Each structure stands twice: as structure tokens, then as C-alpha cells.
């Protein structure tokens, strides 16, 4: 329902049944906080969990299902009862470097324009490499497969998850900051209408300008490790705890 949640369990005492978690989320409202927790049978008690979630989301309970190795978060989104299933996944770099502000969650809070986009140089020449960003319930990753500085052309693999998953391969060309990706609209959900894409070489980030419904937004895609499923397309391995 437009929300992506990741929980990092960074310590747990089996004897006492207590530990600590780091909760992050992105979507209609980004969240990020640290909480202690205790476990009784399947039930996980995370005091103050409601303060980690958007105001429209009211948690009712959280359970760890050891046979399935997954977490079940029961909540109400407005008046609708939902169950969010969190499955094991590699911890993103942002969860391993809590002091960093150049991360996906801080960028997902930008609704209008980025603070700056300067430089018209080319992206790193050694491919593949990836950029990832989040906005309004959508997470988009672009893997640059190749780029020729002489002709300013290359190819990208676009993947996304959120309200509607996407995955496609496209060629692109670059003129100054402007990046033109062939038929990019076909790679995005029907509600997302791309307008332009720029590469800001001084900030080493990609800015995607689009309309989500009638709302104009700007998604900042920042450098990120390429997930295994983006490096092994033929195996089609889609992962993920969140």
C-alpha cells in the first residue's frame, strides 16, 4: 500500500528474549528509528513502534514465525486492517552506516526540487553500476550496463518495486546533463509519467522528474550497490526482508 519497511535486528539475547531493532521505511511517508524489543513465544513487543510509522498506520501486533523465518506486522492503515509480511534480505548499506545522510531514506523525503544539480560530466566509465531512489511508494533502481564517453550512449536496466513492480532493458543517450532513455514510460507504472532525467556529475546522482497522478515529483537516485538479482538477470532471483 505504498510503504516499504525494513527491520534490522542488530542484537538479541536468546536467554532473556530481548534485543534491539533499527526500523526504516520509505513510501508515502519515510520513517527511521531505533527501538528495543522483547519476545514472548511468537509475539514481539516493540515499545513506541507507532512513532516509527506514519500517523495513518496503527500497529496492532508483530510476530516472528520461526518455521517460515519471517515477521508478520498487523496494523490498520486508516480504517483498513492489513498484514505486512517481512522476509529475510541482505541489510542495505544505509542500515549498516547509521551516521550517513547520503542515503535512500533522506532522499525519499524530497518532494520538489533537489538542493542542487551541477556538472555535466559523464558517469563512471566502469560498468555495471547502480543508482537507487524512492518516492511516494515507488523504489526505482537503474543499473548502467555500459556507457561510451565518445558517443555519449549506453544501455540501462530499470527495475522498481512498490505500488507496481517494473523491470526492463533500455538504451540511452546523454547530452550535457540530460539523459534520454528510449521508451522510459513503458518501464514505469501507468500512474507515473516521466518528464526528464538528468545526471548531476558533481553530486554523482540521477534526478528523475515525473508526475505521480497529478502531483509533480522529483526522485533523486543515488549510488548504491547493485543487488545480486540485477547482476544475474538470467537467474531472475528477486530477493528480499522488507
- What is the CATH C-level name of the largest domain? Mainly Beta
Q: Report Rg.
A: 19 Å
CATH topology descriptor of the largest domain: Lipocalin
H/E element string?
Answer: EEEEEEEHHEEEEEEEEH
**Structural class of the secondary elements?**
mainly beta
Largest sheet report: 8 strands, antiparallel
Please describe what this structure looks like:
The chain has 3 helices and 15 strands. The chain starts with a strand and ends in an 11-residue tail after the last helix. With 242 residues, the chain is mainly β. Mean pLDDT is 75; it is low at 97-114 and 233-242. The protein has helices at 93-96, 104-108, 228-231; strands at residues 3-13, 18-27, 31-40, 43-45, 57-65, 70-77, 80-86, 129-135, 138-148, 153-162, 166-175, 178-181, 192-200, 205-212, 215-224. The longest helix is centred in the middle third of the chain and has 5 residues, at 104-108. Strands 12-11-10-9-8-15-14-13 form an 8-stranded antiparallel sheet. A hairpin with a 3-residue loop joins strand 10 (153-162) and strand 11 (166-175). The protein has 2 domains: 3-89, no CATH class; 98-234, Lipocalin.
Offer a few descriptive terms:
242 residues, mainly beta, eight-stranded antiparallel beta sheet, seven-stranded antiparallel beta sheet, elongated
Short description:
This protein is mainly β and 242 residues long.
List the helices and strands and how they pair.
Blueprint: E1 3-13, E2 18-27, E3 31-40, E4 43-45, E5 57-65, E6 70-77, E7 80-86, H1 93-96, H2 104-108, E8 129-135, E9 138-148, E10 153-162, E11 166-175, E12 178-181, E13 192-200, E14 205-212, E15 215-224, H3 228-231
Amino acid at each position: 500500500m505504498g510503504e516499504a519497511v525494513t527491520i534490522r535486528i542488530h542484537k538479541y539475547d536468546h536467554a532473556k528474549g530481548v534485543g534491539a531493532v533499527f526500523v526504516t521505511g520509505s513510501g508515502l511517508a519515510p520513517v527511521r528509528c531505533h527501538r528495543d524489543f522483547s519476545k514472548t513465544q511468537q509475539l514481539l513487543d516493540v515499545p513506541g513502534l507507532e512513532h516509527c510509522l506514519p500517523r495513518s498506520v496503527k500497529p496492532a501486533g508483530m510476530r516472528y514465525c520461526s518455521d517460515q523465518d519471517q515477521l508478520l506486522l498487523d496494523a490498520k492503515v486508516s480504517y483498513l486492517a492489513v498484514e505486512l509480511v517481512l522476509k529475510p534480505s541482505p541489510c542495505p548499506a544505509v542500515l549498516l552506516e547509521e551516521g550517513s545522510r547520503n542515503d535512500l531514506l533522506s532522499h525519499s523525503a524530497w518532494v520538489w526540487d533537489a538542493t542542487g544539480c551541477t556538472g555535466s560530466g559523464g558517469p563512471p566509465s566502469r560498468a555495471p553500476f547502480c543508482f537507487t531512489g524512492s518516492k511516494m511508494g515507488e523504489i526505482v533502481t537503474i543499473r548502467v550496463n555500459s556507457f561510451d564517453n565518445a558517443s555519449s550512449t549506453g544501455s540501462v536496466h530499470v527495475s522498481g518495486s512498490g505500488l507496481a513492480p517494473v523491470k526492463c532493458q533500455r538504451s540511452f543517450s546523454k547530452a550535457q546533463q540530460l539523459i534520454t532513455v528510449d521508451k522510459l514510460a513503458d518501464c514505469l507504472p501507468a500512474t507515473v509519467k516521466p518528464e526528464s532525467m538528468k545526471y548531476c556529475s558533481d553530486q554523482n546522482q540521477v534526478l528523475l522528474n515525473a508526475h505521480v497522478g497529478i502531483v509533480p515529483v522529483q526522485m533523486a537516485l543515488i549510488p548504491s550497490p547493485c543487488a545480486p538479482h540485477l547482476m544475474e538477470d538470467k537467474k531472475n532471483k528477486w530477493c528480499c526482508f522488507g
